[in-house]
Specification:
Elements (H helix, E strand, L loop, with lengths): L9 H9 L8 H18 L1 H29 L2 H4 L4 H11 L3 H9 L5 H30 L4 H18 L13 H4 L8 H20 L1
Helix pairs in contact: 1-7, 2-3, 2-5, 3-5, 3-8
Length: 210
């Protein structure tokens, strides 16, 4: 649990922000949030989990920015004592800690899955490099105003999730391609595999309706 105490400054806040979650977030709480992926991903759906997770991260970061600004400008001790970083990672673990890999593997066709995963991990490494080496410089020069950049970025992420993330719940892996290419999509595994997947989909649909 993180408290932005009265003796904290923006550098200390950033150090807490940059640290690995396991260093300051309760392992039990982080585990409980991540467990949602296992027990509720097929009941709630991937898209809803991503929307709740990203929207929660955005709200938490906006509040985080406001509290940091109030403390930096007016020395507001109540704002400094806000517990915001913990809530950010609570929302993060709802979807992004597990579904980032699972959802990517799920939607990529077999023929480009390896390349797609490579691109995903490359983007993650670039983001980690940016977070480790660029953020301290920007925060030192801009102070709390730098948080505006991340609020905008999270807004962009939420927009992408809202418009482009499809729901794949109860959809056989062989049939996911039809969401992108239509019913005539060529599915790896041949006609037999496609027909079997279609039968399974109809069975799941009937069970869900009943």
């Amino acid at each position: 649990m993180v408290f932005f105490g009265t003796d904290s400054d923006l550098d200390r806040i950033y150090q807490l922000r940059s640290a690995e979650p396991d260093q300051w977030l309760s392992p039990d709480l982080e585990h409980d949030c991540g467990a949602d992926n296992v027990f509720f991903v097929d009941k709630i759906g991937r898209r809803k989990l991503f929307l709740v997770s990203t929207a929660g991260m955005l709200v938490a970061f906006v509040v985080w920015m406001i509290c940091s600004a109030r403390y930096a400008i007016a020395g507001n001790h109540n704002a400094a004592n806000a517990v915001i970083a913990m809530m950010y990672y609570v929302f993060y673990n709802i979807a992004w800690s597990g579904l980032l890999v699972g959802y990517t593997v799920e939607i990529l066709p077999y023929s480009i899955r390896a390349k797609g995963m490579t691109v995903m991990w490359l983007c993650i490494d670039v983001a980690l490099f940016f977070n480790q080496y660029i953020n301290p410089i920007a925060l030192e020069n801009l102070g709390w105003k730098y948080y505006i950049f991340y609020c905008v970025w999270l807004g962009v992420e939420l927009t992408v999730v809202w418009f482009f993330y499809i729901e794949t719940r109860n959809t056989p892996l062989e049939e996911i391609a039809m969401y992108f290419e239509g019913e005539s999509a060529i599915v790896v595994g041949g006609v037999a595999g496609t027909e079997k997947a279609r039968e399974l989909k109809n069975t799941l649909h009937i069970e869900e309706v009943s």
